[in-house]
Amino acid sequence: MIWASGWKLAAAVSNAGGLGLIGSGSMYPDVLLEHIRKCKSATSRPFGVNVPLLYPDIDKHIDIIIREGVEIVFTSAGNPKTWTAVLKEKGIKVVHVVSSSKFAQKAEAAGCDAVVAEGFEAGGHNGREETTSMVLIPAVTQSVTIPVIAAGGIATGRQMLAAMVLGAEGVQVGSRFVASEEASSHLKFKERVVQSQEGDTMLSMKQLTPVRLIRNKFFREIVAAEQRGASEEELKQILGRARAKKGMYEGDMEEGELEIGQVSALIHEILPAANIVENIIREFEEGLKDPLKKL
Ligand code: NDP
After folding, report:
1. pLDDT above 90 (res 295)
2. What does the alpha-carbon distance between residue 189 and residue 252 come to, in Å, rounded to a whole number?
3. pLDDT digits (tens, 9 = 90+) for 2-14
4. What confidence tens digit (pLDDT) does each residue in 201-221 have?
5. Fewer CB near the terminus (10 Å): N or C of the chain?
């Protein structure tokens, strides 16, 4: 959710009864500080910060999170051993995002309070093993004793219900909130998400860091390079720097990196975050009453 989930979106989700997360991966430390402070004044409810463990200035982010009294941290894209104990010592709840049972067990051993089991359908950073949510959720719930939050391909209440039937205790929803009024993403990206069809996103860059992207000009270039056997160095050169910002924040729909999940095919309108939360809960409750009803 880099370039999408700032204080406006996180506070709106928390105010609507969810747990809003600030995506810190695209924020310089002073920017993160500002977003945490604004989020605190915009909601009296709990919110969290997502920290990609490969963020270059991570020690500064962790320091700000501790000093500002953030109570919940979601970590992703890295080894949970490094920071979990530091955060736990300060009384912070730590949830780590995993793409396999093996990593879920490592997160539990590192002392995490819960894991997010994120399937292959998810946008952005993704697992190498391509395990789909349908397989990953039961596999992870059977392999750890801590609560499991399902992610990857979840944007509706029916999908939330299905994840819970498979053993999840909660869901993490990303892509649906990119197409929200409060997301800081460029309007062109939000509109591209709304127009997406099945098959518009694919996994790429397994040689560097696997990422699910919309198939635009940049995607085709990087895939063509992968197919001709380009070295890691060449791929890094093609990727360059700040591609994600170019696409998702600056609105360059051809040269930018557009990270979104497969579920974008089911997203048809940009809505206020509160309506998204209400719709998910309403569909979930309706589904619970009559789970086998044909839609
Ligand atoms: P790049 O190296 O291509 O570019 C860095 C981007 O991050 C720039 O746009 C830069 O903004 C911004 N940035 C924020 N803080 C810093 C900092 N301290 N040092 C340097 N740049 C900073 O990286 P990406 O855009 O591909 O990824 C950015 C971050 O987001 C990474 O930490 C990555 O791990 C994370 N990420 C997490 C994902 C997830 O699923 N968890 C998915 C994708 C990315 P500016 O251009 O204004 O200088």
Report:
1. no
2. 8
3. 999 999 999 999 9
4. 999 999 899 999 999 999 999
5. C
Name the pairing type of β-strands 201-204 and 211-214.
antiparallel
| 48-66 confidence digits (pLDDT tens) | 999 999 999 999 999 999 9
User: pLDDT at residue 77 above 90?
Assistant: no
Enumerate residues lining ligand 1, CB below 6 A. Answer: 2, 25-28, 52, 54-57, 76-77, 124-125, 241-245, 259
C-alpha distances (whole Å) from 261 to each of 121, 177, 197, 266, 267 are 6, 11, 11, 10, 10
The fold adopted by the segment(s) 7-184+265-289 is: TIM Barrel (3.20.20)
Count of alpha carbons within 13 angstroms of residue 152, beta-carbon side: 29
Mutate which of 50, 185, 245 for ligand 1 pocket (most atoms within 8 A of beta carbon) = 245
Question: Ligand 1: which of 1, 2, 64, 237 to mutate, judged by most atoms within 8 Å of the beta carbon?
Answer: 2
Domain boundaries, the chain: 7-184+265-289, 187-263
Q: Whose CA is closest to atom 6 on ligand 1?
A: 242
> Is the pTM value of this prediction over 0.70?
yes
